[in-house]
């Protein structure tokens, strides 16, 4: 997606620890027109899949997830992150380690929103080590529903998440793929460009 790539170049900020800050259009302030385009692009890529639900994780997955769900006219479910829970039958729970926050959360979805017949598209803002994505897939599998694939806004291809999901047999569609953030420079997988060191 060229417009998304341009935004990353213009507004992305490379932080230490290989973290890309995109809080001017994804993670804090959001660009609604770009989000709408992102939703449309995911729908185009998964057009033939008869998706019945979109699943994401709060909070930054909600905007691209909702735009995708709107385009598909299916519900969006966002998994909640909670510190610790007393076990309950009516919720699906998986542990997910957060790369950026360096903490483990229990990620939960109410059982009533997923059924074995569901064909689920999982959306997230970033794919890094694949912890969030795998946790969401495990939640879908707990009810015997099908994971149709993953729609990722920004993939950090130098981290193992993509390969992990591909090896598990999942389809991964990433709108922007970053090969490296070394020395504060954004290098895309198939092209090279720079974000000035800031
Ligand atoms: P993973 O679970 O694949 O290791 O990391 C994905 C999650 O961590 C995403 O939900 C995203 O919120 C966060 N994340 C990972 N890397 C980055 C990054 O470079 N920038 C930002 N803004 N979030 C990231």
Give an overview in words.
- This protein has 198 residues and is an alpha/beta fold.
- The chain has one domain (2-197): 3-Layer(aba) Sandwich (Rossmann fold).
- Helices cover 27% and strands 33% of the residues.
- The chain is built from 5 helices and 10 strands; from the N terminus they run H-E-E-H-E-H-E-E-E-E-H-E-H-E-E.
- The protein has helices spanning 2-11, 32-45, 62-72, 131-142, 161-167, and strands spanning 13-15, 19-21, 53-57, 76-82, 91-98, 103-110, 119-127, 146-156, 172-180, 187-188.
- It has an 8-stranded mixed sheet with strand order 5-6-4-3-7-8-9-10, sandwiched between helices.
- Helix 2 (32-45) packs across helix 3 (62-72).
- The longest helix is centred in the N-terminal third of the chain and has 14 residues, at 32-45.
- The protein is globular, with a radius of gyration of 16 Å.
- Residues 192-198 have low confidence and may be disordered.
- The structure holds guanosine-5'-monophosphate.
- Guanosine-5'-monophosphate binds next to strand 2, strand 7 and helix 4.
